[in-house]
Amino acid sequence: MTADARIERVDVHDVRFPTSLHRHGSDAMNPDPDYSAAYVVLRTDDPDLPDGHGFAFTIGRGNEVCCAALRTLAPYLVGADVAATVADLGELARRLTHDSQLRWLGPEKGVMHMAAGAIINAAWDLAAKLAGVPLWRLLSDLSPERLVELVDWRYLDDALSPGEATDLLRAAEPGRAARVATAAAHGYPAYATTPGWLGYDDATVTRLAAQAVRDGFRLVKLKVGANIEDDVRRVRAARAAVGPDVRIAVDANQRWGVREAVAWMEALAPYRPWWIEEPTSPDDVLGHAAVRRAVAPVRVATGEHVANRVMFKQLLQAEAVDVVQIDAARVAGVNENLAVLLLAAKYGVPVCPHAGGVGLCEMVQHLAFFDFVAVSGTLEDRVVEYVDHLHEHFLDPAVVRGGRYLAPQLPGFSTEMHAQSLVDYRYPDGPVWTRLSSEKGVPDGSDRSGGAGAY
Amino acid sequence: MTADARIERVDVHDVRFPTSLHRHGSDAMNPDPDYSAAYVVLRTDDPDLPDGHGFAFTIGRGNEVCCAALRTLAPYLVGADVAATVADLGELARRLTHDSQLRWLGPEKGVMHMAAGAIINAAWDLAAKLAGVPLWRLLSDLSPERLVELVDWRYLDDALSPGEATDLLRAAEPGRAARVATAAAHGYPAYATTPGWLGYDDATVTRLAAQAVRDGFRLVKLKVGANIEDDVRRVRAARAAVGPDVRIAVDANQRWGVREAVAWMEALAPYRPWWIEEPTSPDDVLGHAAVRRAVAPVRVATGEHVANRVMFKQLLQAEAVDVVQIDAARVAGVNENLAVLLLAAKYGVPVCPHAGGVGLCEMVQHLAFFDFVAVSGTLEDRVVEYVDHLHEHFLDPAVVRGGRYLAPQLPGFSTEMHAQSLVDYRYPDGPVWTRLSSEKGVPDGSDRSGGAGAY
Question: Nearest residue of A to residue B287 by CA position?
Fold first, then answer.
């Protein structure tokens, strides 16, 4: 690149897919999601250089608020030196999350934090493209010391020190090359959520669950939490469809209180759920710990809505979870997820990333491969969520074969959408939404009638 | 009112005050706040009816993101029947916080939650104005059953049931009338933060602390956390200035990790701090519990940045705090603060509200008076923060005399700003900001140079 290349513009796109039309993605708390991206592009001023792409994932309404947050953060990037920026992404992450005035709006949670994560991830996409390698390889080639510098250590001193983290990464260094080869050859285990959306009827659930097993998945997940009789019937049918050896996870999407969660899981216990995901509020560390004590040996999983490393730290300290479910686009990007991977490794809890939505599979696979190569060093009880929606919009879509993610090969973070998708699905005035809003009875994103049904 | 009056419009105002010019409000995490309001008005279509006013408090940059969130929530109010809305504000609060698509952006935290709180509080202002009474009186006249209906009970079942809450409120019913009279006659104890901003030099701190004592305050608060030697010197000087019997609270504004907090408080212990406020991340329940065990008998206080009732619940369950500091404008308004008051009463922990900023004193005094009348029933170790900034912008400003808040008398929630203030301080194009941005070297809200200095 030219020595003085700069980030010239930060483009923000409000992109929404009308997934609620077919109840894809429906669960006990989210009956009608329209998978959306508050999408950001870091445009360089050198035509020979790539751009950095990232996004926050939302489910429709409010995507415009995330876009506003991206525009508010843009001045941190506009005019920045490209080489200096990608050379110190720890510094960038800290600047974006520690702007004192913007921090007041969280701190480190909600819309502003998701927007910071989108920009940090876009910068990582740019860094990996400039390096000519997929992100998981870029991270896997960093020294323990460089990795530790990427983390914001504030608020972690009672759980993990930079020195401990360095030791932990050093201990995993000897096997890195072999695990890169293993990852490239055999991929990373995936699990299938496609069969289990709450809006699907029983026949669809059993048909898709059986198909998932034929496709090589060893874990399928079902949404639960709206009606206990329905859930017992659905989970029993799924168990019959997949046989005794395939794992079935269930996911309540935060629907329950603690006592309610325990009672509900007693009813589902005969069908041997592998984990219960999001039994209650993602903020409720003590609640998760109480549920976990009560429902063992069923595991407790959470993380897709956990706001930041401080909350993950406590879930681990309190022995509240058996499974840590990082999300690529909720916390402050790669950097904060690195902190969570290190915490999980210290406490010996497997990380099984959340994915689905739009583009979450594309991103989080990189973090899983990196975790295997350089942090945890193992695939045991590790599995990444897979949902077969909306991958066609990405230049480098996630690929799952035989129940395993194939290791990404192209440079970058797999975050880049086709330019035409950004145009077609632009909200509210792209051609897809213009057409839908002219058709009677089709959701246009402003309809609130079904939106607040979960309380 | 006319039987069919409706909310015709939801007006949103981005209002900012250039408080950073004089380092008012400076602390270890927030060196240069510009106190701001993402201000919302629920306009009725009947000219004989009042409007409802509310706002989220921010410290400058990002206020526009809160305004975007207010506009996103506005469709829930536009066209709503006024009488039906104010008759069931529990329902309104649940609809605003449980919109499934918007909930994804929290859940129940950050920008969307603050915006929901602003609108809920505006609706309470409207309700109290329609009833012709100050909000604290409106709440104090509701039956235990009606109060319990206002709370969103989701996620509380392991700590407090609606039945327990009803019992608790019934137990406080007999003394209500006497406490209304006491409150009206004697007010509510206040404490003074004005002396202790981190940007003030030692002479200013001691002069203002001594003045606060002469003005009748029995507790003053000092900001700490940037430099330990400076803090020891400042707290020692303040102790000398106020004498042995006036309480001195210290406030680290989330600057420390757990171990750091404990070490720092050891250094300050000789000057007998009454409480340490925000020693670490507001998300760190277990961290606060650890700090509390280590620094006793110094009390631990937090709450102004605690996102929601689930976090307050855990702070109480974990015995992590001695003082619960509700904020009127961070959680989902009056309704969620009512949940927190009930939780604090159950666990026997005093509530000492956070105030200051712009308009926080005006709002939170109503909740304190209500807590005294109908929930806790006591003033023991209760005290509401007071800062003497920006009250002149309100139609019904908070008044403190002899170290005590006087009970508000006018109908409403004291949230309404003068129309001229909304015009003068409109950002970025109101006359005050237009003038400031034309002067060299004056912050215009886009300068990031000092913003991220705290990490």
Answer: A158
Question: Of A62, A254, A452, which is closest to B112 when you measure between CB atoms?
Answer: A62
- A80 and A8 Cβ atoms separated by less than 8 Å: no
Chain A residues with CB under 8 Å of B308 CB are 283
Nearest 5°: phi and psi at B299? Answer: -80, 155
Own/partner contacts of B294-300, CB < 8 Å, gap of 24 or more, are B294/B262, B294/B265, B295/B261, B295/B262, B295/B265, B295/B266, B295/B269, B298/B265, B298/B269, B298/B273, B298/B274, B299/B274, B299/B275, B299/B323, B300/B275, B300/B276
The secondary structure of residue B142, as a DSSP letter, is: S
Contact A335, A90 (CB under 8 A): yes
The partner residues of B412 in beta bridges, in order of sequence, read: B134
Asked whether the predicted pLDDT for residue B445 surpasses 80, the reply is no
A38: CATH = 3.30.390.10
Residue B12: beta bridge partners? B40
Q: Measure the CA–CA gap between B174 and B341, rounded to whole angstroms.
A: 19
CATH number where A228 lies: 3.20.20.120
Residues B298 and B359 placed together within one structural domain of the fold: yes
The token duo for B16 is 């900012």
The pLDDT tens digits for A297-318 are: 999 999 999 999 999 999 999 9
The yes-or-no answer on residue A354 being catalytic is: yes
- Domain of residue B193 covers 169-405
Respond yes or no: is residue A313 known to be catalytic: no
Q: Residue B349 in contact with residue B322, Cβ under 8 Å?
A: yes
Looking at the domain assignment, is residue A223 inside a domain?
Answer: yes
Asked if B63 contacts B36 with a C-beta cutoff of 8 angstroms, the reply is: yes
> Do residue B157 and residue A109 have CB atoms under 8 angstroms apart?
no
Contacts of A280 in chain B (CB under 8 A): 155
pLDDT band at A441 (very low <50, low <70, confident <90, very high): low
Q: Out of A24, A354, A366, A393, pick the active-site residue.
A: A354
Q: What is the pLDDT of residues A193-249, one digit of tens each?
A: 988 888 889 999 999 999 999 999 999 999 999 999 999 999 999 999 999 999 999
Same domain, B84 and B178: no
Contacts of B61 (CB under 8 A, 6+ apart): A72, A99, A101, A102, B445, B446, B451
* Other beta carbons less than 10 A from residue A245's beta carbon: 7
Task: Confirm whether A447 is domain-assigned.
Answer: no
Q: Residue B451 has what pLDDT?
A: 45
Q: Helix axis angle, A63-73 relative to B110-131, nearest 10°?
A: 120
The H-or-E segment that residue B365 falls in is helix B360-370
How is residue B88 written in tokens?
């069931």
Q: Are B98 and A454 a contacting pair at CB < 8 A?
A: yes
Quote the ipTM score: 0.96
Total structural domains within chain B: 2
Chain A residue numbers touching B451 (CB-CB < 8 A): 99-102
Which alpha helices (H) appear in A132-270, and where do they start and end? 135-140, 144-149, 162-171, 176-186, 202-214, 228-242, 258-268
Q: B386 forms bridges with which residues in the sheet?
A: B192
Residue A86 lies in a domain: yes
What is the per-residue pLDDT across B59-74, written as a single tens digit (0 to 9) for each? Answer: 999 999 999 999 999 9
Instruction: Report the residue of chain A nearest B151, measured CA to CA.
Output: A455
- Looking at the domain assignment, is residue A152 inside a domain? no
Distance from C-alpha of B276 to C-alpha of B254, rounded to nearest angstrom: 11
Cβ neighbours for B5, distance < 8 A, ≥ 6 positions apart? B44, B45, B46, B49, B81, B82, B83
Q: What is the mean pLDDT of residues B159-166?
A: 98
Instruction: Strands of B278-397 (E only): list them.
Output: 299-302, 323-324, 384-386
Name the helix (H) or strand (E) containing B36. Answer: strand B36-44
Q: Is A158 helix (H, G, I), strand (E, B) or coil?
A: coil
A65 contacts B310? CB cut-off 8 A: no
Cβ atoms < 10 Å from Cβ of A331: 28
